[in-house]
Amino acid sequence: MAEGRIIKALSGFYYVKSGEDIYQCRGRGVFRNKKITPLVGDFVRFDINEPNEGYIMEIMERENELIRPPIANIDQAIIVNSATKPDFSSVLLDRFLVLIEAKDIKPVIFITKMDTIEDLNNEDIESYKKNYEQIGYQVELLSAKDPDSMPVLDNYFKDNVTVFAGQSGVGKSSLLNALKPSLLLKTGEISESLGRGKHTTRHVELMQVGGGLVADTPGFSALDFSEIDPEQLSDCFPEMRSISEFCKFRGCKHYKEPKCAVKQAVSDGEITAYRYEHYVSFLEEIQSRKPRY
């Protein structure tokens, strides 16, 4: 029995890379019976029954997985925000960060289209960059007019499995095309009336980029917190995670509780006010959802 990794799923077939070869495989019926779906990124054991064809027999334990896009064993998620068109949104960025932190995936922040903004707004973006770096995130500011910045980004991809996240129109496909022109991914035109790009990606595939594997996917199509409980939320904010142990009450939600170390840190300027405001907004959203049965 051979071992490999699924690098593409399309029309019921799973393309498994094993060594330098790729095998077109089907999943065993037992997976369907157990309602298990092999995912791109899965490490698998498979039987070869024809040259370059086979059947997946076993799926190894996953480190992590995403539902949308359906992919497993991800090392990092690069969250792509644009400075303009669509305008930079810290609340949307924090939404992505929470979803990625909840899955134990390392987030990295890229802010594109820096060449399209006015000087005043440039200071705002630089300020956000400083804030997120103080929390511990890596942040890159990218300009289409500075192609020399692209080779630097290769360091992020080497030996990693990377998924891109970000709203449509921020330049995810354009960024990948700049990193690896041979990909020639379709880039979605921005729909001015909607303020968002059209989805152009149809299936999930891991592609070789910069010495690693990158998933070309439509990114997160759902930005709700349906899988996150109120008690988990503050763990998705690293600056709160490190301070919450000093709260008076165990299980403090840093909301209306007295003697809360997190709220004190906000007052002292150790946690930025907008991050805490987003936290409260997300917490209220989670608490207001209907219970699941």
From TrEMBL:
Record keyword Nucleotide-binding present: yes
Residues where Zn(2+) binds: 247, 252, 254, 260
Stretches assigned to the CP-type G domain: 63-223
Stored NCBIfam families: ribosome small subunit-dependent GTPase A
Keyword Nucleotide-binding appears in the UniProt entry: yes
Subunit record text: Monomer. Associates with 30S ribosomal subunit, binds 16S rRNA.
Taxonomic lineage: Bacteria, Bacillati, Bacillota, Bacilli, Bacillales
Example of a GO MF term: rRNA binding
Gene3D superfamilies reported for this sequence: Nucleic acid-binding proteins, P-loop containing nucleotide triphosphate hydrolases, Probable gtpase engc, domain 3
Keywords: Cytoplasm, GTP-binding, Hydrolase, Metal-binding, Nucleotide-binding, Ribosome biogenesis, RNA-binding, rRNA-binding, Zinc
Superkingdom as given in the UniProt entry: Bacteria
EC number of the protein: 3.6.1.-
Known cofactor(s): Zn(2+)
Protein name: Small ribosomal subunit biogenesis GTPase RsgA
Protein's organism: Virgibacillus indicus
Domain EngC GTPase: 72-221
Binding site for GTP: 112-115, 166-174
UniProt remark on cofactor binding: Binds 1 zinc ion per subunit.
A Pfam family this chain is assigned to: RsgA_GTPase
GO CC terms in record: cytoplasm
Similarity-based family: Belongs to the TRAFAC class YlqF/YawG GTPase family. RsgA subfamily.
Matches recorded under PANTHER family: SMALL RIBOSOMAL SUBUNIT BIOGENESIS GTPASE RSGA, SMALL RIBOSOMAL SUBUNIT BIOGENESIS GTPASE RSGA 1, MITOCHONDRIAL-RELATED
